[in-house]
Specification:
Length: 578
């Protein structure tokens, strides 16, 4: 209102005053409507916006997620007599990358190069890390070279993200050169940079280069030593790891993690005696075991099938309000399930879930299978919901296990509820799922539902096992309901060569009984091509007569029947010879 009143009078606020207001509104995180009001009043006052004004407008639009509108305004800057500056490009490029529109950000970057815009320190420190995170090292390095060419000294952040990017791209010599450059520029490399380079050498199994770098650059830093120690263990070179560990001990560059790395390897490889020797040495060195130590020990005990000792350690972990690492968690749950200690496995799962710890999908499937095996299907359903709370995904195997358990209890409605949850969670329905659905509907005599799932199954190029397929087709034929699955029958014979003789007979007999002579004839032709002949019952239907259910009319298999004399003769000869 104040601005409106001023505009109605003779006093016209300056562009600087409007820019101050716009900047204050952005800083105060005010609603976009307030910002737009001030901008419109500026236009009404006949004041031409400056680059700073338009930068404020872009910032406001990006904050309201109006990315396309912001891009449109960026494209119109030149038409308004303004040239984008370093801040403009920083805003546009950074917001595009953050919105996962990286390709568009590179287009804007090329436009920036063409305009030869003078860039400031803020631009480089904002954009170079973003391009590194977006896995665009080429653009990041180009900007880094421009930065140095402009006599702007990079800071530790820039060096750090580039070193990490080089290491991930296996360009370790360039990463080492950046460490040298940092030192020449009076900057002290951070420990994490050394760790990235050591990890890079270990990934390539260039342990000699890693050792040389360690000795020259960070001989008395613990974390890089631990990285090399882990690298040796990852390659199962425990002898080299132990030699390095002894050297670290002499230099007094060990910590709890150093011991845990070796203990984890020993436990994974079931070297329990050496594990406890090292554990004793760890305690003597005044490093108390932590959750990582307990996690490693539990893995070793599980591999030895010592589930009672494993549970004792887990109870200590719980008493200290710690949690196990992912590998130990999965190993313990699977070990308890193997030993049929399902109650203990549930106890572990519930504690870890309450702490939002994730269990591997495969381990969770093992747990659900164990629970369903002892008949606790309601508990399995409850734990699946608890798993969602902890961010644990259910696999198709998990759903199938619960559905199968529900099917044995004749709870077909609960199966359908679970199916809906499965689809909502984006889990694909596989052959086993369809088989359970078809079987459960078959058991309850729900013919239409059974036919529906069977049709869907065959449409997706899946078929039940031979026994279930025979039962389904026989059931439908006996109830004169093969008409419900005619498209599926056609696809069965088009795509699969494993249809049994019994199924041929069931379908020919059933289709003729329902009046589908042409379809029965096609199947008969396929049957004869295989050198098979119908059984006595089917032969009787083909050569004699059958009363169609519910009509009382006879369907004759001669004269006006679709089967000609030639087919009948072949059948007679075949049966006569059998």
């Amino acid at each position: 209102m104040v601005l409106s009143a001023i505009n109605l009078g003779k006093f016209k606020p300056s562009m600087d005053m409007f820019n101050i207001l716009l900047g204050a509104l952005l800083e105060d995180k005010r609603d976009f409507k307030d910002f737009l009001f001030v901008y419109k009043e500026m236009v009404k006052a006949g004041i031409v916006p400056s680059t700073d004004t338009l930068n404020y407008l872009l910032e406001a639009l990006f904050e309201t997620f109006a990315v396309d509108t912001a891009l449109y305004q960026y494209r119109r800057m030149n038409k308004k007599g303004c040239s984008p500056n370093s801040k403009t490009f920083e805003m546009v490029i950074s917001n595009l990358i953050k919105k996962d529109r990286v390709d568009e950000s590179i287009v804007v970057l090329e436009e920036m190069f063409e305009q030869k815009c003078e860039l400031n320190f803020s631009f480089y420190t904002s954009i170079i890390p973003l391009f590194c995170e977006a896995n665009k090292p080429k653009e990041a390095i180009h900007l880094f070279k421009m930065m140095r060419g402009s006599n702007i000294v990079p800071n530790s952040l820039i060096y750090g993200v580039l070193i990490q990017s080089f290491c991930e791209d296996n360009r370790l010599d360039e990463a080492v050169n950046l460490i040298e450059e940092m030192t020449e520029n009076g900057l002290t490399p951070l420990t994490g940079m050394f760790v990235d380079i050591i990890n890079g050498f270990c990934k390539l199994e260039e342990f000699e280069k890693a050792t040389q770098f360690l000795e020259i650059k960070c001989a008395f830093e613990i974390d890089p030593h631990n990285s090399l120690l882990q690298g040796y263990c990852n390659c199962d070179n425990f002898t080299a790891a132990k030699t390095l560990f002894d050297k670290m001990t002499e230099r007094q560059v060990t910590n709890r993690d150093s011991y845990n790395i070796l203990i984890s390897w020993l436990c994974e490889n079931v070297k329990i005696k050496r594990t406890f020797e090292l554990l004793a040495r760890m305690i003597v060195s005044l490093f108390d075991p932590d959750s990582s130590t307990f996690s490693a020990l539990i893995i070793g005990l599980c591999k030895l099938r010592k589930y009672e000792d494993s549970m004792k350690l887990f109870n200590q972990v719980r008493a200290k309000a710690w949690v196990l690492d992912c590998a130990s968690y999965g190993e313990l749950v699977e070990c308890l399930c193997r030993e049929k200690k399902i109650t203990d496995a549930i106890q572990v799962f519930c504690y870890m879930c309450k702490n939002k710890c994730r269990l591997k999908t495969s381990s969770f499937a093992v747990l659900i299978k164990g629970i369903c095996r002892i008949g606790k299907v309601d508990e399995a359903i409850r734990l699946r919901l608890l798993a969602n709370y902890a961010g644990i995904s259910s696999s198709d195997s998990t759903f199938n296990t619960i559905m199968l358990a529900l099917a044995t209890l004749n709870k077909e409605n609960d199966i359908l509820v679970l199916l809906s949850q499965m689809l909502v969670e984006g889990i694909s329905v596989n052959a086993e799922t369809y088989s359970v659905l078809v079987q459960s509907m078959y058991s309850k005599g729900r013919i239409k539902d059974m036919a529906l799932f069977f049709n869907l199954m065959v449409r997706e190029d899946l078929i039940p096992d031979s026994g279930l397929l025979t039962n389904i087709l026989s059931f439908l034929a006996n109830n004169s309901q093969l008409t419900l699955i005619l498209p599926a029958i056609d696809k069965l014979f088009s795509n699969y060569d494993c249809i049994s003789l019994e199924i041929y007979n069931i379908l020919i007999h059933g289709l003729l009984k329902e009046g589908y002579r042409r379809e029965a004839g096609k199947i008969l032709d396929l049957m004869l091509e295989k050198g098979w002949v119908p059984d006595a019952s089917t032969h009787q239907v083909l050569t004699g007569s059958v009363v169609k259910e519910g009509t009382g009319k006879e369907i004759m298999a001669s004269g006006n029947c679709a089967m000609d004399d030639k087919v009948s003769n072949i059948l007679s000869e075949g049966l006569g010879n059998s």
